[in-house]
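Worked example 4.2. Below are the chains of a multi-component assembly; read each line carefully before continuing.
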Amino acid sequence: MSKRQLERKRTGVLGLDEVLNGGFIAGRSYLVRGGPGTGKTTLGMHFLCEGAVEGEETLFINLGESQEQLRISAALLNLNLDGVHFLDLSPDPAYFSTSQSYDVFSPADVEREPITRQITETVARVKPKRVFIDTVTHLRYLSSDPLEFRKQIHSLLRYLAENGATVLFTSEGSAADPDDDLQYMSDGIVDFIRYSNKRILEVTKFRSSDFKSGLHSMTITEQGIEVFPKLMPEDNKALIGDDLMTSGIAELDEMLYGGLERGTITIISGPSGVGKTTLALQFMDQAAERGEHSLIYSFEESVETILRRGAGLKLPISALQERGTLQLLAVEPLLYSADEFSHRVRKDIEAQGAALVLLDSVSGYSLSIRGEDLVTHLHSLVKYLQNRGVTVILINEIQDVIGEFQVTEVGISYIADTVIFLRYLEYRGELRRAIGVLKKRLSDFEKTLREFQITSDGVKVGKPLAGLRGILMGVPEWGDKDAGLES
Amino acid sequence: MTPSNLILLVDHNARNLELLEDFLHKQGYQVQSMAGLDGFEGALDDHDVGLALIDISGFDRSIWEYCQMLTERDIPFIVISPKQVSHIREEGRQHGAKDVLIKPLAAQELASLIKSLIGHD
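Applying the procedure described above to all two chains together yields the following structure tokens:
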């Protein structure tokens, strides 16, 4: 059978279907691992509900929590278990109160047979297409030794498969009680990990199918589990266009030999307050003028601040926003993980398309990364955008106001096709600004710096500062020619 | 005379008694079970007991007197002991037990032991 013909069972969690390239493979058994409270049971409920929605018979074999408890937790997650059959093998309260304990035979001898009988009877009656066993770890105690357990579970899984069921089973693996045997037995493994206060999902094994490897963020809300598959840039392809995105400032476009190529990545770098966002807004404004859609993800400023700033520069941001060509989105970095943010960007782009995306700023974005590898995450996000033909502008803040020059502090300049930098410089006791282009992969560019001003009439870029030396040091000296600075 | 198919079962724990009864019934034996020792002697008088299974957990030393009674009547019996303690094994043998088994019992082993004892008195 070719891979294309393998029937898939959707998991009930959209993002997980995507990670699994369509869902679990029908007739196979999958292990869901993870510590307490990581979402194993919730995933099982999604899986069964999805089956119920598709009109399949589904069976929940619960050995830990009682059916009643499970129904309550499902209701809290807005999952409807009405169509799901239960085989409740959880210990009933009478066990404790009537002291049904025994010691004459081992539990393996006493309990296994009735449990096996109940399972086979129920499967024969319900003929489930989906079975969820929560948790198989309980069955471990009913086996006298590991080999016995392995054989038991193996034959149980085969029995269920032969009866046409796709099986999900959970295990409580810990260092003291490893579940390696179960990992070998399953056709695939979904691992739930809790890392500080983040939830992560990883597929570590998936027989007969490709899947999206790596760590994917997930959340559990009132809507249940949501998985945010890590962006894989190679999934999408688009070409870099020939046309240029102009800034609308003749001098700056001159420096860039026309403008920014469509589908490229630009970093605007500079110290705080020098005008990076303002400069970027020029490009957005121009794009909007041409009727193209732009998105601004602002990690640092509220929508109101940006609007006021635009008004101060005589940029018609509110008007553009009303016309729907520009969208301002304030992002609270602490509410999003990197994958969640990528997911949001992707949804926005796929829903409405955009010619230009501004991320303001890299440091805000890195806050949502929380210690993970910034460069990797940022790389996959911008590559994804680039592959969709979106022009990306990243705002990067430099700590030092003046002093030795640095393009970025986080080593991301390799991502960029174009780097524009803004500098403060001290000139005759005044704080002035300069703009320069450091790199442009796709065309030549002007190597001299120019003065950069933010006035009440908007952004102004002056003539080339050919007469000054040492601008990159922040304290320029007179060269032999006219400085080019406006006095 | 055909050997009796009746097994006398003594166990202080009700659930154990239930499990053993089930087990013996499945093997095709008749079972007379008791949770205590009241009426022990009477049961021996009233029934033709072919074998006795005595779980000594929960009984005091007087249990051995009852074992003695079985020996005197030529009824084979098996002592079931809670843990591996050599003096119980020894004492059990001294009072005429055919074997002393330690809990939890291995079902298969118990079945074949009973079979070998009840067939040949």
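Take a moment to check your reading of the output against the notes. The CA atoms of residues 154 and 185 of chain A lie 7 Å apart. Chain A touches chain B through ten residues (CB under 8 Å).
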